[in-house]
Amino acid sequence: MEGNPTLRLRVFDLNCWAIRYLSKRRQERVRLIGDMLHREDFDLVLLQEVWSEQDYNDLKVKLGGCYPFSHYFRSGVIGSGLCVFSKFPILDTLLYQYSLNGYPYMLQHGDWFCGKSVGLVIIKISEIIFNVYVTHLHAEYCREKDAYLPHRLVQAWELAQFIRHTSKAADVVLLGGDLNMHPEDVGIRLLRGWTGLQDAFVEAAHFEGCEDGCTLVPNNCFTDKSGLLPFPLGIRIDYILYKAISSYVVKCEELKTTKGAAPGMDVPFSDHEAVMATLHIQRQGQAAGTTFGTAEPTLADVVTEARTEVGVGLQVAQRQRYSSGRMALLALLLLLQAAAALGVLVGMDAGHPFPKLSFCLLAFLAIGVLLLATGLHLFHTMEVKMLHGTEEQMRMALRALQERP
C-alpha cells in the first residue's frame, strides 16, 4: 500500500437468541434482523445464538447480495450458534471449543449442549489482514452465587490464549460476542489485560444508545427481569473489542446500540441489544509492539485473582468427584448384594414366599444409580483435570510476569 491509507470498518454484533420451537416470535425476529442488516449495509456481522442452522441459511440467502461471504461454526449437540457475514472474502476459518462449559445434568440451563466455542475468520481488506473472532461464553445465572464462575474464567483464559497464539500474523484483531461478564469482572480484566484488546465502548469518540452501553436491559420484553433487579439500567455483557498488532492504529469513531423494539414494530430483535461500531484503521510510521497488554503489576494481580477463583472451583469439583465416586461404589455394593440374594433364591423352590421381584427391582435401581454415578464421576474427573491444568497455566504465567525486569 502507498502513502498513509485509511480504512473505515462498520461492525455489527448481536446475540440473536434464536432457538427453533422455543424462542418467541423467532421467525419474525430473524426476518427483522435480516431486513436491518440489508438496510444498514455493515462490513462485518457477528452473530451468536443462531442455534437453528435453517435460520442461518435463510439469512444467507436473504443477505447474499450484501454479504457474499459467510461462515457458520458447528459444535456441540445443538451447535455453537456462531456465524459471521462479511462483505470481504474469508481466507480461512478455525473453531476452538472450550474445555469446560457447565454441567450436562443442568438441563434447564443447557450451556453444555451448545458446545460453547470461539470462531475465527481471517479476512483481507485493502491489504490489511484481520483476525475476526466471535464467541459466546457461559451464562451467569445467579450473580450472588455463581456456580459457573470457574468455568467462565477457564473460557476467558482459553479465549485470551487462543487470540494471542493465532493472531501473530494479523494486522488487526477484532473480537465480538456475548461474554456474559460485566466490564469490571475479573474475566473481562483478564481477557483485556492478557491480550491488550481495547473496549470499543470505552474508546468510542461518539456513543449513541442505551445508557452506559447496556445490552441486557429490563425493558426488553424477552428479558428475565429477576436477574436485573440490582441493575435498574441493565448490564453490559456484549462487547466489540479490538487491537492493532503491526504498523496500524485502530480507533473507534462511533459506537451504537439498538434501543428496544425494531423500527415500526412491537418486538425487539432479540433479548439483547445489538452493538454497532465504526472503526478507523490507519497505517502508522512504525510497528506497534506486541505486549501482554496493560501494566504488568496490575495484570499480575488480575491473574492472581483469576487463579484463586479457578482454585476454588477446583476444590468444589474435587468434592463432587469424590461424592459421585462414593455413590458409585455404594451402588455397586448394593447391586452385588441384590445379585447374591437372587442367586440364592433361584436355587430354592419356586413356591418359596421370599419376594424375588423386590430384589429384581433393587438390582435395576442399583444399576441405574451405578451408571449415573459413574458418569458423574468421569465428568467431574475431566473437570478436575481441566481446572487443574488452567490453574497450572496461570501459575506459570504469573511467575513469568513477576520475573520480568
UniProtKB/TrEMBL annotation:
Instruction: List the gene name.
Output: Smpd2
Species assigned in the record: Scytalopus superciliaris
- Primary localization class, coarse: membrane
Question: What SUPFAM superfamilies does this protein's entry cite?
Answer: DNase I-like
| GO MF terms, alphabetically ordered | metal ion binding; sphingomyelin phosphodiesterase activity
Matching entries from InterPro entries are given as: Endo/exonu/phosph_ase_sf, Endo/exonuclease/phosphatase, Sph/SMPD2-like
Q: Which GO terms describe its cellular component?
A: membrane
Q: Which chain positions lie within coiled-coil regions?
A: none
Query: Transmembrane region positions?
Result: 328-348, 354-379
Q: Which cofactor does it need?
A: Mg(2+)
Q: Which PANTHER family match?
A: PHOSPHODIESTERASE, PUTATIVE-RELATED, SPHINGOMYELINASE FAMILY MEMBER
Name of the protein in its database record = Sphingomyelin phosphodiesterase 2
Q: Which UniProt keywords apply?
A: Hydrolase, Lipid metabolism, Magnesium, Membrane, Metal-binding, Sphingolipid metabolism, Transmembrane, Transmembrane helix
Q: Where is the Endonuclease/exonuclease/phosphatase domain?
A: 15-272
